[in-house]
């Protein structure tokens, strides 16, 4: 599932392309929404809330979308060939000079803009909220502290605590904190520092497709432990370990350095090479995708 900065950038690009423009074509191909035609409406804005997107229209309604594991929005010029097959398209929003196509958007809803909170009101503070202030810090801390017995790695993924983090960031945040993802929240010495680090990492990557936690965008150097199983730790040379954390469908592949990170951890698990669950999707080279 994409990280919050990926969704933020998608919303930013959609806002730039569509906001203030009338839709010449507004098809919703989701089974629940096929009877709706948005043509003639003007897009008033596109905003992200955690991993959710809202495209707002001048009739007082919003189109809500969520990427899940395989969804995406692509931007094209009229007449350009789509880079995904047409039967995967769930929304087509076309203005005079741009076409936004939402592919594989399993979660797509049309609702009054005033009711957006019914879909995101349960979330914790959005780490990329441009209005972030002391109140957001206090609320995130309150929600985190309330999960004193829960492991750090799972709390970082819980959108009801802080909205926006995914598997990439939670693994490397734990590394930067020097704690394994299995350390209980009650044993984390600086929870405000966890919140601040989470915000800084997401914010540093929100305006570009590439994501780095090390400060380097060079190939193979962008992450501390994420997706580096069996490879030497960048700090101490110890081999990075991997195991699942979480139950059933919520389990995520977890990476840690047994020397640099202190705290409880399971026995290492051997894994075949290849794509891993919990990894953020990336567009193919040259794609007009928003991220």
From TrEMBL:
Region of interest called Disordered, as start-end residue ranges on this chain: 258-291
Cofactor(s) needed by this chain: Zn(2+)
Residue stretches of biased makeup (Pro residues): 281-291
Location of the FPG-type domain: 224-262
Occurrences of domain Formamidopyrimidine-DNA glycosylase catalytic (ranges): 2-102
Pfam families according to UniProt: Fapy_DNA_glyco, zf-FPG_IleRS
Keywords from the named record: DNA damage, DNA repair, DNA-binding, Glycosidase, Hydrolase, Lyase, Metal-binding, Multifunctional enzyme, Zinc, Zinc-finger
Enzyme Commission number(s) from the entry: 4.2.99.18
Top-level taxon of origin: Bacteria
Catalytic activity: 2'-deoxyribonucleotide-(2'-deoxyribose 5'-phosphate)-2'-deoxyribonucleotide-DNA = a 3'-end 2'-deoxyribonucleotide-(2,3-dehydro-2,3-deoxyribose 5'-phosphate)-DNA + a 5'-end 5'-phospho-2'-deoxyribonucleoside-DNA + H(+)
UniProt similarity note: Belongs to the FPG family.
Annotated protein name in UniProt: DNA-(apurinic or apyrimidinic site) lyase
Organism of origin: Pseudonocardia alni subsp. carboxydivorans
Organism taxonomic ancestry: Bacteria, Bacillati, Actinomycetota, Actinomycetes, Pseudonocardiales
């Amino acid at each position: 599932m994409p990280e919050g900065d990926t969704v933020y950038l998608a919303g930013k690009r959609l806002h730039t392309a569509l906001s203030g423009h009338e839709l010449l074509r507004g098809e919703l191909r989701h089974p629940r929404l096929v009877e709706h035609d948005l043509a003639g409406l003007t897009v008033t804005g596109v905003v992200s809330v955690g991993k959710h997107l809202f495209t707002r229209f001048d009739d007082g309604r919003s189109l809500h979308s969520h990427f899940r594991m395989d969804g995406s929005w692509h931007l094209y010029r009229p007449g350009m060939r789509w880079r995904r097959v047409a039967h995967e398209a769930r929304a087509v929003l076309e203005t005079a000079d741009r076409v936004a196509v939402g592919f594989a958007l399993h979660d797509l809803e049309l609702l009054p803009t005033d009711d957006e909170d019914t879909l995101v009101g349960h979330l914790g503070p959005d780490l990329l909220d441009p209005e972030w202030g002391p109140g957001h810090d206090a609320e995130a801390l309150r929600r985190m502290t309330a999960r004193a017995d829960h492991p750090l790695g799972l709390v970082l993924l819980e959108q009801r605590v802080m909205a926006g983090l995914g598997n990439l960031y939670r693994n490397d945040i734990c590394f930067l904190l020097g704690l394994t993802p299995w350390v209980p929240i009650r044993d984390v010495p600086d929870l405000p520092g966890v919140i601040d680090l989470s915000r800084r990492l997401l914010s540093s990557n929100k305006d570009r497709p590439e994501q780095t936690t090390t400060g380097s965008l060079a190939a193979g150097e962008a992450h501390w432990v994420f997706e580096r199983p069996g490879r030497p730790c960048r700090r101490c040379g110890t081999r990075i370990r991997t195991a699942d954390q979480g139950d059933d469908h919520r389990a995520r592949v977890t990476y840690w350095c047994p020397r640099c990170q202190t705290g409880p951890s399971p026995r290492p698990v051997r894994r075949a090479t290849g794509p891993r669950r919990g990894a953020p999707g990336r567009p193919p080279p040259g794609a007009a995708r928003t991220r």
